Amino acid sequence: MRPSLSLVSLLAGLALTAAAADYTPPASVYPVGTIEQTWHDAKRNRDVPVKIYYPVAPRTGVTASFPVIVFSHGLGGSREGYSYLGQYWAGAGYVSVHVQHAGSDSEILRSARPLQGLLKAESDPQVALNRPLDISFAIDRLTALNSDPSFALQGRLDLGRLGVAGHSFGAFTTMAVAGAHLPVMGTDLRYADPRVKAAIAMSTPSNRSSDTDAEFDAVHIPVFHMTGTKDESTGGARESDQATVGHTSAAQRTLPYRHTRNAPADLLVFTGGDHMVFSGRLAGSRPADKEFQTRICRGSVAFWDAWLKGDPAARQWLEGGAFAAEVGNLGTFERKG
Q1: Would you place residue 208 in the very low, low, confident or very high pLDDT band (cuts 50, 70, 90)?
Q2: pTM confidence score
Q3: How many other CB atoms are found less than 10 A from the CB of residue 212?
Q4: Beta bridge partners of 230
């Protein structure tokens, strides 16, 4: 007698639940190595510094390859920042490539008038438009280097399983690469990169025109959005909807998630979480930072495992209630799609 469809579905659901019960987001599976290089984009006459965190896998008869994550820093950041994420992701079996964006990086802070430099960078459309192009250029370079015998990670980059992540201005960059039609880009579609399979956007800047579905209708890959109830930036006031990362309220940070309707989307909101908790805060850490960052690391690895490695147990752990239970009173987790 053939089992009914409902029975098959029930058994499949029970199997996934059992698998999720055995799933734990991996950490420190591999020792972590780093590589720093500066790549030159001749087309734009632009240098792109990178820092690569990678799993140090034992060399066996079969060369192990690893999924790749390209990370974009926030305004005033550099390739040296967000090291807690690079270390964690590489230890979990990912190559994490941290890109530094000239024009909105830490060099501004070394200028004679750093505050004015930051305000200028956050309102300059060309600075914003160069960022997603930096990400696509980095993917081009990684593709070329993967077959270069002189590159230490030759043959170890699985670029068929590619993710992009970023914080603040880096989340703007991430959403542009994921396919969002952001106002500063007009109708230009060249910023979306179809090679990217999943994305994580932390503290995404938004403005009045972001309160529409249309801006995010071309996003067709899973995106994990992260923010906090105190995630309000101190950027300058927006003079127009063409501005990129000026002042954004905590409520506006959730707009990209709320208006996504053509792809799976997750939303983590930390209670009391501010803008800098995602950065790994260089000084003056706050009591909840460690707890928040533990959930950022574990939730993000489960997301990568689910969507880049295709692990159904990771997806069930993330979406079936286990992760929300782990977040507990630190915040809320919801999903759709």
Answers
A1: low
A2: 0.91
A3: 12
A4: 274
